[in-house]
Queue: 2 jobs
Job 1
Amino acid sequence: MRSYEILEKKRNGGEMTPEELAFWVRGVTDGSIPDYQIAAWLMAVCLRGMTPRETARLTQEMARSGGTADLSGIPGCKVDKHSTGGIGDKTTLVAGPLAAALGVKIPKMSGRGLGFTGGTIDKLESIPGLRTSLPQEEFCRIVREVGISITAQTGDLAPADKKLYALRDVTATVDSLPLIASSIMSKKLAAGADAILLDVKAGSGAFMKTPEDAAALAQAMVSIGTHAGKRTAALITDMDRPLGNAVGNALEVAEACETLRGRGPEDLTRLSLELAAGMLSLAEKGDHRTCLALAKQALRDGSGFEKLCEMVAAQGGDLSVLEDPSRLPQAAVMFEWKAAQDGYWQHADAQACGAAAVVLGAGRETKESAIDPCAGIVFRKKPGAAVSAGETLACLYSSSEASCRAAARLLDGACRFGLRPPEPRPLIFARVTRDGVFPVCELDKA
Ligand code: URA
């Protein structure tokens, strides 16, 4: 087999055979195919696309390109969750413990944040003492005994994706549906769970700007998971505005605790309950309505919060900060961002809010940058609210007043105010299963 012929075939829009895909991914991983040929192949895929069968096989080869997690020592159905990333998205810290409290096993490998999106590992690391690089045996033991553990993704998971992603980044080929879907799902398949729930975001703070594009990505990923023999489903959810009130690592941990104690913001609570119900349903705990009722019960009776505490204790974290979030690291400077006029808050561009959080120190500009666990934003009002000139819309937290002022300028540019309230926007657009895309209102009636 010659890589030149594979390139020619892909350039002409042909479908690669399983043998060609295995050869290609092996060559990408061991370095025997040169970067210039890989880059040409990426562009050909970007322009010509891939069939669902071809994308599924590519993903399985990428998943097998390195180590895969062996979760066979954990009894019961193991369910993974993945969000395509967003601003203020701390649902893993709420939905995961709720589902685990109801008997689902959640072995969760998570990433760090880059740019305007946050990462669960950075959020967890704001809890003093908590370890996020767990050896495989310890990770499995905690999932077996507690029901949930969250650890940093190891470097040898899907190395083919690492290589392809680095080249996509510099060849204008990030933006391709089969390449995004195979990249995300190769790591999920290698992580070894039996079932996968995807939260695919749509809006100004997401990869996919419209619910239609998000649904297409979700369908591609659900098809990949199903081809690989994993029960896979997705929710299409809003990321046109930040989720919840808090953006920033320690601030988001505090908000997740409040939410698990029944005192969280309405949008975060609702989405977390739906995600927990989705995980329960993949673990065959009942139909959607039953699973949603179970999740609500675990929120009401505090068992979800207890489960988060058990996990934090098992990973060496200081439990007292969960009981009293004011003991989490605190920022040196707090600055109030205020409304300039009377009216309605019509829109908050989520990506720009994320950029403001990065300026405050809550996110990374490059992979190497350090983050400030205390930095971030707590919104006091949300888009849709009536506001008065001079009213505090958000508290900004950072190590310096200069960065607070710079972030406030970004928020001024990111938010729009007017005389009329905005059209309400759904929080959850649709659910995607192997059988199709279902608007959530239809589901609710089911
Ligand atoms: N996240 C990934 O892991 N890969 C992509 O291609 C996009 C988002």
Job 2
Amino acid sequence: MTLARHPRIPAATAINPPSSSSIAPSPCHLVTPSPRHPVALSQPQIIIKRRRAQPFFYRHPWVFAGAIGRVDGQPATGEEVAVVAHDGQFIGRGLFNPHSNIRVRLYAWDDETPLDDALWSRRLDEAIAARRELFGEFASDTACRLIYSEADGISGLTVDRYGEWLLVQLTSRALAERRDLLFRLLQEKLKPRGIWLRTEKGIGEAEGLDIADALVAGKEPPRPLFIEEHGVRYGIDVVEGQKTGFYLDQRDNRQTLARYVHQGERVLDVFCYSGGFGLAAIVRGGAGEVLGVDVSERGLAVARANAELNSVGERFRFERGKAFEVLERLASAGEKFDAVVLDPPKMTRHRAGLAQALKGYHQLNRSAVELLRPGGLLVTCSCSGLVSRDDFERMLAGVALDAGRPIQIVESRGAAADHPMSVFCPETAYLKCCVCRVGG
Ligand code: SAH
């Protein structure tokens, strides 16, 4: 992606980008030089309301309906539009979707770059090249995220590589309409054995999109499909498993857990799904015994198979149940662990649910602390984008006070490097993983 500076953002002032609620207008600290030129474009124009354009000059890619003052022309669903400020100054080019609350997704910020096949091709090349730098030549059991939507300048497209298969998610209707082109480009560039399309829950309604999971090129992926991560083998179901089959974003946090676990220790892996954290603790960290807890029988079946695959079945036990209830039962049985991992699913999708989510995190972490020996390790995660790192750390302070035990964060981590955060779109950094020492 070329990052030519926008004429309205002198470098010296561009140090304080909008926060995660960047759609809301923030105090204007921009010097405003005279406009480069007002746009005179043939395509439909989306005119942003006065004082609402700042996030887009900062290249936030989501133009919500509420920021739009006027639409000039009659753009069709998926059509390319120019986004301009109220005074006519050009901001960027995007794709229009009247069915989504995100009316326009922006993809280019100069008026010479059309959103044509060459642009998508370049963006894919850049994202793939960045992953090759991280992973080297992909092996037949490498699993990683190749394209991460806004973070790679392609809002609405996610592509995960699992060995020789690609798992694609389309979360924008306009890109879904270009799917044949995108699939063709992915085939040309990566020569996968197959491409499988996965649909994200709720996205159909959010985007007015009618797509279903399907094989879109090549051969169906094997079930299970085997991958290796930091020396641990996993068999996963990319067709029906959660997400695209595996939680790739936690890769390096599983490795981190292994670094902190000592030989023979007892570990509790809550929300274990396919057994990722627990297996890292046993295979890499030398844990003596892990108890994995999850509500999903299917997840636990995969986890059991993965423990066998790594020949550590006798050290990995499982309990099916709701986390809160299992934690309570373990506490009343007087059980203690050297390390507890908490990796719950997203707790809220809406700002209105934030307080409730924080209460949930508090309860979970409070129960986990109860089960830790003095000096034990708590690896606690949140993938709720709306919960900020500050919120999460404050929640931990509340837990420490409540439990009367000090909590030190020894590592504050996020998602693995193949899920980068775009500084233009803070929402791309959703995962928090705090590695904590819990005192006596
Ligand atoms: N730690 C896993 C990923 C966890 S994803 C890994 O490294 O791969 C979240 C998991 O929480 C899912 O497997 C889901 O089945 C489980 N889950 C959701 N609600 C739950 C609940 N109330 N109690 C226990 N598990 C739950």
